[in-house]
Amino acid sequence: MWRSCLRLRGWGRRLLSGPPRGLAASLGSGPNHLPPARAYAPPTGGFEINLDHRKLKTPQAKLFTVPSEALAIAVATEWDSQKDTIKFYTMHLTTLCNTSLDNPTQRSKEQLIQAAVKFLDTDTICYRVEEPETLVELQKNEWDPVVAWAEKRYGIEIGSSTSILGPSIPARTREVLVSHLASYNMWALQGIEFLVTQLKSLVLALGLMDLYLTVEQAVLLSHLEEEYQIQKWGNIEWAHDYAVQELRARTAAGALFVHLCSQSSMVRHKLLRD
Prior knowledge:
Blueprint: H1 2-6, E1 14-16, H2 20-27, E2 47-51, E3 54-55, E4 65-66, H3 69-80, H4 92-102, H5 109-117, H6 133-154, H7 171-181, H8 186-199, H9 202-209, H10 215-222, H11 224-233, H12 237-273
Antiparallel strand pairs: 1-2, 2-3, 2-4
Helix pairs in contact: 4-8, 5-8, 6-9, 8-9, 8-12, 9-10
């Protein structure tokens, strides 16, 4: 585990978590010496990624540093998965890290939270159809349990509506969700907004982050009406399958990013509490 944390095979990429001489001292010189599972202190500035001994930079030429070791390993693995041609559009974790580091739109924590909560006004699973009856029943059977879970989980009211104006969301619901999202750091919030945008639903994103839903379930629920139409009329198979796989990949990356960015702060909070 020690070696895999510091050096990832392929393309000479290396995850740096401390000075080289620290590694040598930890490994020791004896042939039977086994390194400890964690014998170094993470660098103050975060974890870096090296590509062929060159430091990775963001589009704005900032040093690419991430807040947790787990996220650094995930990003390095993402780079290792690239073959002859680097396909940046498949590197969702790297892209999210670049966005968090560069913050190209210069948004504050409050603005990120408000952007996510605003999705309640057009949340996919809050908009219902009035016909056909089979689709009405499908939405009720599949979406109502998720809404009920969110209302119970956060002690709020969400509801649903068939009006083009959408449901009337109580002010307290927004306040509770704003307070909940404020517990996340800036990096995690970038991932949350990305996740909400992919699913077109804050409720589904919350269910996914809370492990109430799987990635496959969240994606399916976000495109329930489209799946209904496909079952009824058929589809262009390759196009639909490709789109679903792409959405699953982006959604999975967003959820993983949120968890990996929340990991270190959650651990510190637990240690301080205990």
